[in-house]
Design a protein that fits this description.
By secondary structure, the chain is of the alpha/beta class. It is built from 8 helices and 6 strands. Strand 2, helix 3 and strand 3 form a beta-alpha-beta unit. The longest helix has 23 residues.
Length: about 230
């Protein structure tokens, strides 16, 4: 019954989504390097893979984005060789395609799922792509620790009007549950999104992280990484 209701509302969702796109400012990806070597000590190879949030949309420079805050917490302990593979609009399938070569990494930090929600990736394909990505990281890139950020709860973002917001919230919850299952099976760490997405945390578009959220996100992910490497 719920499926039939959502199908009947599909034209409304499409119209509202177009309205959000028209009203929402298009913010650029953060400037700055996307690879490098920083710090001293034991070697650590870090991969950051994801969508616009991994790319730093919402802040001006990578120093203030997820990558910059991760490095700030890791370089006092390690000599970090790091690489950022991220693109605005990337789905999980597209993130897999960005994994060129077979370079090894010790830690992979993932920020994916939003575009799978927005682009209506069906549950079976999302499960397949997520499991495939985790398998490639483990097998081809020999990643020892995968930290996968949760699919953000889009139903809590006021930038989306109702009933679109409720629909996106349902899909976010569904895909995040799939991601949790895939992480549990692959031995990856699923990192929940437990901050209310109020304006304090968000960029001017009301959707992407702002400076305080990137700082908190980077701190938490670095803490999890350090716990596993100690």
């Amino acid at each position: 019954m719920q499926t039939l209701s959502r199908l009947a509302l599909a034209p409304v969702f499409a119209c509202q989504a177009l309205g959000v796109l028209a009203r929402t400012p298009r913010l650029p990806e953060a400037a700055g390097p996307r690879a490098g070597v920083s710090g001293q000590g034991r070697d650590l190879r870090l991969l950051i893979l994801g969508d616009s949030s991994a790319a730093g949309v919402g802040v001006a420079h990578q120093d203030k984005a997820l990558s910059g805050h991760l490095l700030a917490h890791l370089v006092p302990h390690f000599r970090v060789s790091w690489q950022l593979n991220a693109r605005s609009g990337a789905t999980t399938a597209q993130a897999r395609a960005m994994l060129a070569g077979d370079a090894p990494f010790d830690i992979a930090v993932l920020a994916l799922g939003v575009n799978d929600v927005l682009r209506q990736t069906n549950a079976s394909r999302f499960a397949r792509e997520t499991a495939g990505l985790l398998e490639e990281l483990r097998q081809r890139h020999r990643v020892k620790h995968v930290l996968a950020s949760a699919v953000p709860p889009l139903g809590a973002f006021s930038v989306f009007p109702q009933p679109l917001r409720a629909h996106l919230g349902h899909r976010s919850t569904m895909l995040d549950a799939i991601a949790q299952q895939a992480c549990a099976k692959a031995g990856a760490v699923h990192v929940p999104f437990d901050l209310a997405p109020d304006p304090h945390w968000l960029a001017t578009d009301g959707l992407h992280p702002g400076p305080p959220l990137y700082a908190e996100w980077g701190r938490r992910m670095a803490g999890l990484a350090l716990d596993r490497l100690s």
